[in-house]
Write a structure and sequence with these properties.
Elements lengths: L1 E6 L3 H12 L3 E7 L6 H7 L11 E3 L3 H5 L5 E4 L4 H9 L6 E3 L1 H17 L7 H14 L7 H16 L3 E7 L6 E8 L9 E2 L4 H9 L3 E3 L6 H10 L3 E9 L2 E10 L8 H45 L4 H16 L1 E9 L4 E7 L11 E3 L3 H9 L3 E6 L5 E11 L2 E10 L4 H4 L1 H43 L3 H15 L2 E10 L4 E9 L3 H21 L3 E3 L17 E8 L2 E11 L14 H29 L10 H18 L3 E8 L2 H8 L1 H18 L5 E4 L4 E7 L5 H15 L14 E7 L7 H15 L5
Parallel strand pairs: 1-2, 1-4, 2-3, 4-5
Antiparallel strand pairs: 6-7, 6-11, 7-8, 9-10, 10-11, 12-13, 12-17, 13-14, 15-16, 16-17, 18-19, 18-22, 20-21, 21-22, 23-25, 23-26, 24-25
Helix pairs in contact: 1-5, 5-6, 6-7, 6-10, 7-10, 10-11, 14-15, 14-17, 15-17, 19-20
Length: 773
C-alpha cells in the first residue's frame, strides 16, 4: 500500500482523488494547499467535505508533508517552481515527487487493468509500452528526468513482478555508475548508491553493454555468486544505450524465486529500455535548454544590477545573492582596502551577513588572502560526512592587472565547473571593473570633498590675525581633513631663537599626547634641518623606533616663509572611515596635504605682514622709538603690573623747550637731526627694561619701573648729557644752546589711572618749564 500526498487543493488536485481512491494499492493520506481561496476550502465553506471514512487530512501548510509519517509519493499539482523547490528541500528519503501527468498515466492504467480483469486479451507488455510512449509525449511537462525514470522503473518492475529495481546512470566525470531511481514493492530500498564499472551485476552489464538474465537453472556459477552477494535469487539487468553508448543500466531483482524472470521479461525490458534512453536524451536536452535559459536570465538580472546606479556595497550584495541562487550555493565578495592592505567583506549571500559582523583579512591570511597575494584562482574540492561533494573556489578580482578584491563561491553542485565556470569566469572581470570604478569615483569624491574642506579652512587660516590663533587653526584643520589622530605645529620664536611647539590637536589620552610631543621635538627638528617633508609608514621600523610612543605612522612637513623654514607641521596616525585602528599615511595623501600647506604658508606670511604693519603703526618713523599710542598701551601694562606687585613706577616727560626757535633758526632738517640725536642718547642711557618713546615733536616720555635712583636725579643726568652733546650746527650763525624741560610723577603703588599719570607728568613739566627767550 502506497501512501500518497497531494500538493494542491485546486481542480487538478481534486480530480486525481477518484483515480487514487480507485487503486487498490494506493491511499491518499494528505492534501496540502497554501492558498486559502483554493477550491477545496471554498467547497468546505459550502458544506462539501471529503468523506471522513477516507481519512484524508486537509492542511494549509507544506510543513505537514514533512511531518507526515509513512509517505511514499507526493503528487505536486501546484505548477509552482517555489513550491517544488520547497518540497525537494525537505530531503524526504524514499519519497518520490511526481507531477499530475505522471500520476494520471500510472493510476489510469492501473484502473483499466483492474476493470478488464484477467480475461482481457490485451498483453501486459503492450500496456506498459503504451504508458511509456505517453510519458515520452508528456516529457515537456515533467519537472526532471528523475521523476520520469522513476516511472519507467515502476513500469518495468510491475511488468516483471519484480520486488526491487534500480536505474543507475554513468557519471560523465569519473565513469562510475550513480543511482538515479529506485523501486521497492515492500518498502526496501537499494542501499548501494554507486558502483564501479565492471563491479557487481550492474557494473558488469555496463561494461559488457549486453543484457544479463540471471534466473533459472542455467545461471553461470560466477553470476550465481554475485546473486548471493547481493542477497537476491533472480535478477534481470539491461544496459541503457544512447547513440550506441552505454549511459546507464536498468535492473530488476527478486528474492522470491530463482526462476522468477524469463525470456519474455527480457524482451519486455529490452523494448522498454530504448524508450527510457529516449527519455534521458530528451530530458538532457530540456535540462540544457533550461540551463541556457537560466544562464540568460542570470545574465539579464546581473546586467541590470551592474548598469543601475546604486552604492557599490548594495550592488555587490545583490550580485552575490544572484550568484548564490544560480550556483545553488553561497557567494561572498571581498574588496581590497588600499590604505590598510586588507581584504574587507563587502557582500555575502548569507542572511547572517550584516555590518555587525564586519570581517577583515590580511593580504596573506586564509585562502582569500593567498588568492589576493598571488593573483591566482584557488580551487578546493572535498566531501561532506555524508559523501556529498563540495567545491570551494576563490577568484582574484583583477582590473587592468590590479588586484581590487576576491570573489568566493561555495557549492555542493558537482557540475559547477562544467555548467557555471564559464559564466563565473565572464562575471569576475565585470565585478572587478565595477569595484575599481566605484573606488575611483569614491576616491575622486573624497578628494573633491577634502579640497573643498581645505579651501574653506584656508579662508579661515588667512583670516587669522595672530600666530596663536593661526597655530590652533592649522593643527585642528589639518588633522580633521587628513583624518589624523593628532597633529603638532612648531614655529620659530624670534625672542628665544628656537623652534617651539605652538599648538597640538587630538591625542586625548594624556600619556599618548606626552609621548607624541616628545617624539615631535626630534621629528620636527629633523624636517626643519633637512628642509624636506618626511613620511614614516611604520614608526616601529624607523629611525624613531626607540621613542616610546603608541603612534604608528607620521607625516611631517616644513613650513616656509620667503625661502626660509619657519616651522613644521606633523600629523600622526591616519584613521580612515570604517577602520578600527590606525593605518599608514600614503603617498596619495601628499597632493591633498600639499594644497593645505600652501594655505598655511600663505597664512603665516599674512601674520608676519600684520605683525610688521602693527610694528610700523606703533613706532615713530623718525626715531624708531615707540610712538604715543604704543607708549600709552605700554604704560597701561606697566601700571597694572606695579599695582599687582605694589612696585614703584616713574613716568616722566622730557622735551626741548626752545625747539621751535631752534627750527626757525636752523631749519627742519636740523630739527630732525636734533630729535634723532636726543632719542639715541636716551636709548643708550636707560636700563634694558626701561621704556623711552617719542610723545610729540620734541617731547619724549620715559617709563622707569622699580628704579633705585630717584626720578629727578635720572632726569637731571639725562638733561646734562643731552645739553653737552647738542649745540647749534656750525655755520655763519652764532650757535644756540638747547634748553631741556622735564616733568614726572611717581605712582608708588598708588591707585592712579593712565590719564591721570600723563596729566600729572605734563603739569609738572609745565610748572618747571623756564620761560623761553
Amino acid at each position: 500500500m502506497k501512501n500518497v500526498a497531494i500538493v494542491g487543493g485546486g481542480k487538478e488536485g481534486l480530480a486525481l482523488l477518484p483515480l487514487l481512491i480507485k487503486s487498490a494499492d494506493t491511499k491518499v493520506t494528505l492534501i496540502a494547499e497554501r492558498n486559502p481561496d483554493a477550491l477545496i476550502f471554498k467547497l468546505g465553506k459550502l458544506g462539501y467535505m471529503i468523506s471522513d471514512h477516507l481519512k484524508v487530512e486537509i492542511s494549509s501548510s507544506l510543513d505537514s508533508i514533512k511531518e507526515k509519517e509513512g509517505l511514499d509519493i507526493i503528487v505536486d499539482t501546484s505548477h509552482n517552481d517555489e513550491i517544488h523547490a520547497i518540497l525537494n528541500s525537505f530531503n524526504l528519503e524514499h519519497v518520490d515527487i511526481i507531477n499530475p501527468a505522471t500520476a494520471k498515466q500510472i493510476w489510469s492504467n492501473n484502473g483499466e487493468e483492474e476493470d478488464r480483469e484477467a480475461a482481457s486479451p490485451k498483453d501486459d507488455n503492450d500496456s506498459c509500452l503504451s504508458i511509456i510512449n505517453e510519458v515520452v509525449k508528456e516529457i515537456n511537462n515533467a519537472k526532471d528526468k528523475k521523476e520520469l525514470l522513476s516511472m519507467v522503473l515502476r513500469v518495468a518492475a510491475s511488468s516483471t513482478e519484480a520486488e526491487t529495481g534500480s536505474i543507475m546512470l554513468v557519471d560523465k566525470k569519473d565513469g562510475d555508475l550513480v543511482l538515479e531511481a529506485s523501486y521497492s514493492m515492500n518498502g526496501r530500498r537499494e542501499i548501494k548508491r554507486s558502483c564501479k564499472l565492471g563491479e557487481g551485476i550492474i557494473g558488469k552489464v555496463a561494461a559488457m553493454g549486453e543484457p544479463l538474465l540471471l534466473s533459472g537453472s542455467k545461471v553461470d556459477a560466477k553470476f550465481d555468486e554475485l546473486l548471493r552477494k547481493e542477497g537476491v535469487k533472480s535478477a534481470l539487468s539491461v544496459p541503457i544505450l544512447f547513440d550506441e553508448i552505454v549511459i546507464g543500466v536498468l535492473t530488476v531483482k527478486t528474492d522470491r524465486s530463482d526462476n522468477a524472470f524469463n525470456q519474455k521479461d527480457l524482451k519486455s525490458l529490452t523494448e522498454l529500455v530504448p524508450l527510457g534512453a529516449k527519455i534521458i536524451g530528451l530530458s538532457q536536452e530540456i535540462e540544457e535548454m533550461k540551463h541556457e535559459s537560466d544562464r540568460f536570465n542570470f545574465w539579464k538580472k546581473v546586467s541590470g544590477k551592474i548598469s543601475i546606479h546604486m552604492p557599490i556595497g548594495k550592488k555587490l550584495e545583490e550580485i552575490s545573492k544572484l550568484v548564490a541562487s544560480f550556483i545553488k550555493g553561497e557567494c561572498a565578495i571581498y574588496t581590497l582596502e588600499k590604505d590598510s592592505v586588507e581584504l574587507c567583506l563587502k557582500a555575502s549571500s548569507t542572511e547572517s551577513h550584516t555590518l555587525s559582523n564586519y570581517c577583515k583579512l590580511s593580504i596573506d591570511e586564509g585562502v582569500e588572502g593567498i588568492t589576493a597575494q598571488t593573483k591566482c584562482e584557488v580551487t578546493l574540492r572535498g566531501e561532506s560526512s555524508d559523501g556529498e561533494k563540495i567545491l570551494y573556489k576563490v577568484y582574484p578580482l583583477l582590473s587592468d592587472e590590479e588586484i581590487v578584491g576576491v570573489f568566493k563561491v561555495l557549492t555542493h553542485s558537482v557540475n559547477i565547473e562544467e555548467d557555471n565556470s564559464k559564466v563565473l569566469d565572464e562575471l569576475v572581470p565585470l565585478i572587478a571593473k565595477e569595484i575599481k570604478d566605484a573606488f575611483e569615483e569614491e576616491r575622486m569624491s573624497l578628494k573633491a570633498s577634502k579640497i573643498s574642506a581645505i579651501d574653506e579652512a584656508g579662508l579661515k587660516l588667512i583670516s587669522a590675525t595672530s600666530f596663536k590663533e593661526l597655530s590652533s587653526l592649522i593643527a585642528s584643520s589639518s588633522a580633521m581633513i587628513m583624518e589624523a589622530e593628532g597633529s603638532v605645529i612648531s614655529l620659530y620664536d624670534k625672542k628665544t631663537g628656537q623652534f617651539t611647539i605652538r599648538a597640538a590637536y587630538g591625542m586625548g589620552d594624556k600619556e599618548l599626547r606626552k609621548s607624541i610631543l616628545n617624539l615631535d621635538k626630534k621629528l620636527a627638528n629633523d624636517v626643519i634641518e633637512k628642509r624636506e617633508p618626511l613620511l614614516i609608514s611604520d614608526l616601529r621600523k624607523s629611525a624613531y623606533k626607540d621613542e616610546k610612543t603608541n603612534a604608528r605612522s607620521a607625516r611631517c612637513y616644513p613650513l616656509r616663509h620667503k625661502g626660509s623654514v619657519v616651522g613644521a607641521l606633523s600629523l600622526y596616525d591616519k584613521m580612515s572611515k570604517g577602520a578600527f585602528y590606525p593605518i599608514p599615511f600614503k603617498q596619495e595623501d601628499k597632493e591633498i596635504l600639499d594644497r593645505f600647506i600652501l594655505y598655511a604658508e600663505k597664512a603665516i606670511a599674512n601674520i608676519v605682514s600684520i605683525v610688521e604693519s602693527r610694528k610700523l603703526i606703533s613706532v615713530d618713523k623718525l626715531t624708531n622709538l615707540p610712538n604715543e599710542e604704543s607708549l600709552v598701551r605700554r604704560l597701561e601694562d606697566e601700571l597694572k603690573r606695579s599695582k599687582r606687585h605694589n612696585d614703584s613706577l616713574t613716568f616722566a616727560f622730557l622735551e626741548v623747550a626752545n625747539f621751535n626757535n631752534y627750527v626757525d633758526l636752523y631749519g627742519h632738517d636740523s630739527g630732525n637731526r636734533l630729535v634723532k640725536g636726543i632719542a639715541s642718547r636716551l636709548s643708550k642711557s636707560i636700563r634694558a627694561f626701561d621704556v623711552v618713546g617719542r610723545y610729540s615733536d620734541s617731547r619724549f616720555a620715559l617709563l622707569l619701573p622699580e628704579s633705585d635712583e630717584k626720578g629727578d636725579e635720572i632726569l637731571k643726568r639725562l638733561t646734562d648729557q643731552i645739553i653737552a652733546e647738542n649745540v647749534g650746527p656750525e655755520g655763519s650763525l652764532p650757535p644756540v644752546s638747547i634748553k631741556i624741560a622735564c616733568g614726572l610723577i611717581e605712582s608708588n603703588g598708588k591707585n592712579l589711572g593712565v590719564e591721570q599719570l600723563i596729566k600729572s607728568a605734563a603739569e609738572d613739566l609745565e610748572n618747571k618749564r623756564a620761560p623761553v627767550a
